[in-house]
From TrEMBL:
This is Fructose-1,6-bisphosphatase class 1. GO terms for cellular component: cytosol. The lineage of its organism: Bacteria, Pseudomonadati, Pseudomonadota, Betaproteobacteria, Burkholderiales. Pathway: Carbohydrate biosynthesis. Residues 199-332 form the Fructose-1-6-bisphosphatase class 1 C-terminal domain. Its EC number is 3.1.3.11. Binds 2 magnesium ions per subunit.
């Protein structure tokens, strides 16, 4: 039987053999993975553990919080605050940054997360997930402030997501391609099941919430119209559509078999650049996609080059198979 490679071994080898990650980062990622196991357990229990339904509160973005949004947020904080690897955390579900309490040692990393992505799917037993991103605290800055978090996605030192679906699966990059691990519930450990994931450059599958079509900008409408025209249209091929409404699930499908994902700016809220959050969703997913050979833009610029102006900044997202993302980006630039 081939040797099973655990997440622990994978990370130790990244540290020892390639010197790619420092020991502190390795331990931090292990703790994040452990927290994801805890969240996976709560998700699997569902109604049996009384974790479904709304919590009766709103987050900083005015979205109604689900009980699992709050539980997942607490699990991630409690698992990570005492380890000594972090200076602070930031979450889609918290108004401002969370400083590691003084009673614990302070580390040099910053952890950002969307604790439970795909909240609208929690109660209907459809795949949801946790998205995370790790940055290094800028050197020389005393203490830690929100300003320290406002770094471009290109500065990430690790990023990943854990999807709670038919299997619990963790996708991770530390800048050496994307590795995928599947949770072996009997052993309680993540086992490496795919390495050096590659997204095909071309695809016949697109993902977008079509109910917003009337609100889209012309370049997005042009792209989707051409896909819908099928083999008789300018693309000369038929396209299929998928929309799970959990970014983790849509991105996981794209990492697995290619495709393009769009959550564009639209006219419903003209003052907002998009719905998805730059620092908790777009940056980590964009780095994973790029590390797998795909591309990610906001329609005009590479997402990883965007300098965030604030913690909860939103952004338009176009990511996935390289040639399709480049096409959508070209349509936007031509429309200027
Ligand atoms: P959430 O983090 O509050 O769950 O919101 C993000 C989710 C993404 O996972 C998904 O791609 C998108 O919102 C779905 O939005 P919509 O319901 O507008 O289709
Ligand atoms: Mg989300």
């Amino acid at each position: 039987m081939p040797t099973k490679i655990s997440l622990t071994r994978y990370l130790v080898e990244q540290q020892r053999v390639d010197g790619r990650i420092p020991g502190d980062l390795r331990l931090l990622l292990e703790v994040v993975a452990r927290a994801c196991k805890g969240i996976s357990h709560a998700v699997t229990k569902g109604a049996l553990a009384g974790v479904l339904g709304t919590a009766g509160s709103e987050n900083v973005q005015g979205e109604v919080q689900k009980k699992l949004d709050i539980i997942a947020n607490e699990v991630l904080i409690e698992a990570n605050e005492w380890g000594g690897h972090l200076a602070a955390m930031a979450s889609e579900e918290m108004d401002s940054i969370y400083l590691v309490p003084n009673r614990y040692p302070q580390g040099e990393y910053l952890l950002l997360f969307d604790p439970l992505d795909g909240s609208s799917n929690i109660d209907v037993n459809v795949s949801i997930g946790t998205i995370f991103s790790v940055l290094k605290k800028p050197e020389g800055s005393p203490g830690v402030s929100e300003q320290d978090f406002l770094q471009a996605g290109a500065k990430q030192v690790a990023a990943g997501y854990c999807i709670y679906g038919p299997q619990t699966t963790l996708a991770l990059t530390v800048g050496d391609g994307v590795a995928v691990f599947t949770l072996d519930a009997d052993q309680g450990s993540f086992v490496l099941t795919q390495e050096q994931v590659r997204i095909p450059e071309d695809t016949k599958e697109f993902a977008i919430n079509m109910s917003n079509m009337r609100h889209w900008d012309a370049p997005v409408k042009r792209y989707v119209d051409e896909c819908l025209a099928g083999r008789d249209g300018p693309r000369g091929k038929d396209f299929n559509m998928r929309w799970v409404a959990s970014m983790v699930a849509d991105v996981h499908r794209i990492l697995t078999r290619g495709g393009i994902f769009l959550y564009p700016w639209d006219k419903r809220e003209p003052d907002k650049p998009g719905k998805l959050r730059l620092m908790y969703e777009a940056n980590p997913m964009s780095w994973l996609v790029e590390q797998a050979g795909g591309a990610a833009t906001n329609g005009r610029e590479r997402i990883l080059d965007l300098k965030p102006g604030k913690l909860h900044e939103r952004v338009a997202v176009v990511l996935g198979s390289r040639n399709e993302v480049e096409r959508v980006t070209r349509y936007h630039l031509e429309a200027r």
